[in-house]
Design a protein that fits this description.
The protein contains 11 helices and 10 strands. The protein is of the alpha/beta class.
């Protein structure tokens, strides 16, 4: 089954062709990073307009690159939530038009389910059940993947997502957008014990986490140094901040592995590319005898291949949409409206 998949939830326009949920035939991505960098972050209106300009050409390029015709496509899949509402609408409207014009089924895919499914593309042997730590710019959660389309959220951030905090700290430090990658690079040169930064403590749900206090502490430290003319060791601050994020995530994932008895752990989302978090999670999980799956960096960020991968299993489960499909800025991974 060949699925034409579309992703436009933020600042990457992507179109992919995926076979049977596991094989990427092509994954075309038009990045807007350079455009948004001058503003220090994504400008929603600009993102939406750029998606409109890029999406049709990407679809044509995907078909041309693979040598496939429209009649070779069996279904059309699209990210319908969550994301910047204008950006998501562009992808949804394109996918609806494509499905209608070709007479093909339309498959709605939750963006975070797509991130989890990126692991299926990288590891052909991976099948549910397994635990997945999702760490992206807008989401941080521990998910028990019981089946391809049946999942339970064990814990989530109660405020800011880890990725949002990385980007904010990077921006205040004057680093180029996206800040998370720059912070990671600087952290590799620093002393992670130089600055004392807080870690959130478990609450009523031991798997829930919080990053707003950590973000505020780091920003206050940066502003204070600037106000008093104190030299700031940027590399060590980045290292200390990254260590605090990792120290918040790792123990909760370890506890989830112990409590659920799962012995397979997948990592997903843009922050899954962070070198410190990858190393710490790998060491902790392997100490428990758990197998760890971390997708290559190119599959950690937003892409359409992951949407095509998850769409295959959504299709098998009968999760299809008609022309009334709408876009949602917020939506639970379980399909519930937030």
């Amino acid at each position: 089954m060949i699925i034409l998949a579309v992703e436009s939830s933020c600042d990457e326009t992507a179109v992919a062709l995926v076979r049977d949920g596991r094989e990427v035939l092509t994954d075309k991505i038009a990045s807007q990073v350079e455009l948004h960098r001058i503003y220090g972050g994504v400008v929603p209106e600009i993102a939406s307009r750029m998606h409109i300009e890029a999406i049709y050409a990407l679809a044509d390029q995907a078909l041309e690159e693979t040598g496939l015709d429209r009649q070779d496509i069996d279904a059309v899949a699209v990210t319908y939530a969550p994301g910047l509402i204008g950006a998501v609408l562009v992808g949804v409207n394109f996918a609806k038009a494509a499905a209608l014009s070709m007479g093909k089924p339309l498959i709605p895919v939750h963006h975070i389910r797509g991130h989890i499914a990126a692991n299926y593309l990288a590891f052909s042997e991976l099948e549910p059940p397994f635990l997945c730590l999702v760490v992206s710019g807008g989401h941080t959660m521990i998910v028990d993947v019981e089946d391809y389309t049946r999942m339970q959220i064990l814990g989530t951030t109660l405020d800011d997502a880890a990725g949002e905090c990385f980007d904010k700290v990077g921006r205040v430090l004057g680093m180029p957008y996206p800040g998370g990658a720059a912070v990671d690079k600087a952290a590799q040169r620093g002393d992670d014990r130089k600055y004392a930064l807080p870690r959130s403590k478990p609450g009523a749900n031991p798997y829930d986490m919080s990053f707003s206090g950590l973000k505020t502490a780091a920003l206050n430290l940066i502003h204070h140094a600037d106000q008093v003319g104190e030299a700031l060791d940027v590399d060590s601050l980045c290292a200390s901040f990254t260590a605090a994020v990792s120290d918040t995530l790792v123990p909760r994932v370890v506890r989830a592995l112990e409590q659920t008895g799962r012995r397979r752990l997948a990592i997903a989302g843009g922050v899954a590319a962070n070198s410190r978090i990858r190393a710490d999670m790998l060491a902790a999980a392997e100490a428990l005898g758990a197998q760890v799956y971390m997708p290559p960096l190119k599959l950690c960020g937003d892409n359409a291949a992951m949407i095509g991968a998850q769409a295959y299993y959504e299709y098998q489960a009968g999760n299809l949409a008609d022309m009334s499909l709408n876009a949602y800025a917020t939506r639970s991974i379980l399909g519930e409206t937030l």
